[in-house]
Amino acid sequence: MATAIQILGWAHWGGLALIVIGYIMSLAQGVIHPVMVWGARLQLLLGLAIVAVMEMNGGGLDHMWVGIKLVVALAIVALCEISAARARKGRNLPVLMHVAAGLTAVNALYAIFAL
Q: The whole model's pTM is what?
């Protein structure tokens, strides 16, 4: 079980890297890059998988901490999806991708320092 948690944890960090890389690529284009959108989706799914595996392992999670991270992750995915949809329609609003990147940084710092 510990191996599964470690693999999911490293993959979760990889999803964070995808969001950051996608954001940097988005800055060059001025439009949200699909790598950022897929990174946000991956982060959400891997975070849920980590919580599920840890709960199967006997729990011990702070559910308030998990809930806050889940709400922020859902907001990040929603902002990325809205930004991508608006860009496809030709009504780009780059502030949404900037807010999503900021929330990603907040969520990562919260994960590191509030645990």
A: 0.93
